[in-house]
Predict the structure of ABC transporter ATP-binding protein.
Amino acid sequence: MSGLEIRRLRVSFDGFTAVDGVDLDVRPGDLRFLIGPNGAGKTTLVDAVTGLVKAEGSVRFDGEELLGRSVHRIARSGIGRTFQTATVFEELTVLQNLDIAAGAGRSMWTMLRRRKDVPESVVRALETIGLTDLADSPAGTLAHGQKQWLEIGMLLVQDVRLLLLDEPVAGMSHDEREATGALLRRISEERTVVVIEHDMDFMRSFARSVSVLHAGRLLSEGTVAEVQADPKVQEVYLGHAAATEDATVVQEA
Ligand SMILES: Nc1ncnc2c1ncn2[C@@H]1O[C@H](COP(=O)(O)OP(=O)(O)O)[C@@H](O)[C@H]1O
Ligand SMILES: [Mg+2]
């Protein structure tokens, strides 16, 4: 089977089970949203898939088992992720960031070469993420949303086939969110995309399918409509609402 296939995934920290026997299938062309209250285990699941934490069970991508492989080997298998905070090189330009991502293994001289030598993959990524006009600007001068797009571009030039994005629209303006949603739709036509998200409006507008995680377990799965109509999901989000300041998420859920 192609795509992502997770079985009985379990991650424990000193006896505390953060991910507790999760099964998840994401096919290429899907745009899967992974939602759930804080502490549900969403980031830990992505950490397990990318090799950052030890896990039990099975994680296959395009049929290959990933669990037990090193972080680098998993990255070389075509799997990339972003973190909740952007990790671009602020001093370098947009183009240089993409060039470095594209050219892992090439010399510094080749990577910092002039514009006219820009590889096709970098030109295409710049267009896809909408930063062509800002190619020569230092990444540190980009707006918050643009930095997240640059990070996604860095995964595109590596020709990542599975993108795992951890709260990519957190802190973005409404317009930035819309642009990001459109970007994720384009990307998911050719690649498998999993988005961890908190924002219900964003999820409703762009998710093709949704998995809800709660206390390390899969609570519900389906289309946006199915998940929203699920009493178990309503209960978790309402309970969550009473206990936290996250009132917007709750009211809309
Ligand atoms: N390195 C760690 N050591 C101990 N506990 C952790 C570690 N990472 C995450 N946790 C715990 O695992 C649970 C799930 O965390 P996380 O995956 O970050 O949740 P989410 O991303 O859904 O908000 C939380 O209770 C968190 O405190
Ligand atoms: Mg998280």
Summary: DSSP finds eleven helices and ten strands in the chain. The first strand starts at residue 4 and ends at 13.
